[in-house]
Design goal:
Blueprint lengths: L1 E5 L4 H10 L5 E5 L16 H16 L3 E10 L20 H12 L6 E12 L5 E12 L15 E3 L11 H7 L1 H16 L6
Parallel strand pairs: 1-2, 1-3
Antiparallel strand pairs: 3-4, 4-5, 5-6
Helix pairs in contact: 4-5
Length: 201
């Protein structure tokens, strides 16, 4: 069985990635289980750079294969904001609800539809520092009022393109069929299985 450390303490992300990898003989490890410290500061100029920063540091600290992502919400009417700053929108102590409120306040008065997309870069690092990358996007639009009780972050105000549901109205199985993070993990999956010595058949 392969071992894989997930470079996040976000419970929503951990739940989604565990479900995406559930069909494979992979022992999922968490930062807390290994007694690892604070998450790496995201100082990169792209989602991929931020994802790589996280996994490189944690692979060096743990000696494990590490999977991590950086995800952002890009809103057309805000020139692509919050983008790389999505997790820190509204300040370092802001809650998910605070960030959603800040986004809607910034969009107030701007013409709808508020087109947007979720972007996600997933990085895999070996204990020796070799890196592989996967990418995913999910188009949609921002709604002026929250809908749904599932998900996290901006999910409850993000209407998925082609559906009449927000991310927060989807089941975990539905979200993991079409989300940006699911696409990125699936893009990386063949290489992940190969690196962990797992037969995909």
């Amino acid at each position: 069985m392969g071992r894989l450390l997930l470079a996040s303490r976000n419970r929503g992300k951990l739940r989604e990635i565990r479900a995406l990898l559930a069909d494979w003989p992979i022992e999922i490890l968490t930062m807390d289980e290994l007694g690892l410290g604070e998450q790496v500061e995201e100082t990169g100029s792209s989602y991929a750079e931020n994802a790589v920063l996280k996994v490189e540091v944690l692979a060096g600290q743990s000696g494990e294969w590490v999977l991590g992502d950086d995800t952002g919400l890009e809103v057309e009417a805000l020139g692509g904001a919050p983008g790389l700053h999505s997790a820190r929108y509204g300040g370092p102590c802001a809650s998910d609800a605070d960030r959603r409120a800040r986004l809607l306040a910034d969009l107030a008065g701007k013409a709808r539809p508020w087109r947007a997309r979720f972007c996600c870069a997933v990085a895999l690092a070996s204990p020796a520092g070799a890196i592989e990358l996967g990418w995913g996007e999910c188009p949609g639009e921002i709604l002026p009022a929250e809908r749904g009780a599932s998900g996290f972050g901006y999910d409850s105000i993000f209407l998925v393109g082609g559906l009449e549901k927000t991310m927060a109205e989807l089941t975990l199985e539905e979200k993991n069929r079409l989300s940006h993070r699911a696409q990125a993990v699936r893009a990386l999956l063949p290489e992940l299985l190969n690196r962990l010595g797992i037969d995909p058949d």
